[in-house]
Amino acid sequence: MNANDELEAPSPALEVRSLTIRYGDREVLAGAGLTVGPGEVHALLGRNGSGKTSLVRCLLGQQRPADGKVLLFGQDVARRRARLMDRVGVTPEEPNAPAAWSSRSLADFYRPLYPRWRDRFFFDRLAHWGIDLARPFGQLSRGQKSLVQLALALAAEPELLILDDPTLGLDAVARQTVIRELIGELAERPMAVLLTSHDFAGIESLATHVSLLHDGRLQLQEEVETLRSRFRLLRFQLPDGCQAAALLAPLRPLEVRSFGRAIEALVGRWDEEEGRALAARCGERSFAASQPSLENIFIAMTTGEL
């Protein structure tokens, strides 16, 4: 290769360009843009009814958007869906398989569809979870159905894994099992992942990037560590003659609670120098700044001012 030759950067696993989704006159999503690169675990957050599942359906070519384009591995999913799906693993929001089919029957169905299918992985995972291979899918518990669908998706060795609320309706043990399996699989064989979820604790242990779907728009797309670095939960005593709003204005407060002179505030533009000045003014002994959870940030951003 000549010194002047440039290596072509790999295409993103998933790219959404100016996507708009409508149902009749109701616009669910307007002009959304989203990119998931190789090896990224991207969490798509939004309240119930915000359009997350509609967006996922468009990503998979199951629903045509009103406008815009979805690219998988640099190719238009609307035109090349049949060729692209063997590189994508999916777990739907609601477990979906013929009720009479056993897990063994599902493996027989999936096997010829995915050239990198791993029989041993699928059967070993179900044996580890104590799921009877001969039992009809319709007779499995909600948690077992979700685990079967996850095993099916992972056994296909996808380059892109799309998980639509994979822990929805699961008890604490089943949720932990799903998250643990995903962490283990990603550590062994990194892949691009897009997941929607309300399980914030699980997201924090998995996600490298996060987006927020709110009021019909993707209002945030950011690395998780960058997001954490600019938010702080502050606690301090309000000095005499001061107003909390004026003190906190440079830090962009999203939530402010007062308990007498005691103030608790979530700020979205943390700056170390401004923080030191605020601590000195309020009294360093009473001042504390900590990183909020992803759940705290989500609640503030969907109920307060961005």
Question: What do these coordinates show?
Answer:
- 34% of the residues lie in helices and 27% in strands.
- It has 306 residues and is of the alpha/beta class.
- The strands form 3 sheets. Strands 6-7-8-3-9-10 form a 6-stranded mixed β-sheet, sandwiched between helices.
- The longest helix has 17 residues, at 172-188.
- It is elongated and about 75 Å long.
- The mean pLDDT is 90.
Summarize the structure.
This protein is an alpha/beta fold and 306 residues long. The protein is 34% helix and 27% strand.
What is the makeup of the main sheet?
A: 6 strands, mixed
Mean pLDDT: 90
Radius of gyration: 23 Å
In the sheet with the most strands, the strands line up as 6-7-8-3-9-10
Shape annotation: elongated
Oligomeric state: single chain
Keywords for this structure?
11 helices, four-stranded antiparallel β-sheet, 306 residues, 34% helix, 14 strands, single chain, six-stranded mixed β-sheet, alpha/beta
